[in-house]
Amino acid sequence: MTSEALANHDCPLCGGANDCALARSGRVDVPCWCESATFGAALLARVPQPLRGTACVCVGCASAAGPHRRR
């Protein structure tokens, strides 16, 4: 999880809403679906370089990637 709220509400892979609670609320002390998810290196490598670390992948893209690991 990031220490700053993200302003980007769109998934960098499909362009749909990413449902990021941090972006939606503008706060970092709110729970988000991604806290219990992990994302694989292959999925994260698909995120365009300028958006890495600034835009969250949506649930649909994360689920479509299959079992995912972030850590």
Structure description:
By secondary structure, the protein is mostly helical. It has one domain. It has helices spanning 21-25, 41-45, 59-64. It is globular. The model has no long low-confidence stretch (mean pLDDT 83).
Q: Summed up, what is this model?
A:
This protein is mostly helical and 71 residues long. It is built from 3 helices and no strands. The N and C termini lie close together (11 Å).
Give the mean pLDDT.
83
How many helices in DSSP terms?
A: 3
Per the principal axes of the C-alpha atoms, what is the gross shape?
globular
Q: Radius of gyration over alpha carbons?
A: 11 Å
How many structural domains? 1
β-sheet strand percentage: under 5%
Largest beta-sheet characterization: none
How far apart the termini lie comes to 11 Å
Work out the number of β strands: 0
Helix vs. strand class: mainly alpha
Q: Helix content range of the residues, please?
A: 10-25%
List low-confidence stretches: none
Order of helices and strands: HHH
List descriptors.
71 residues, mainly alpha, 0% strand
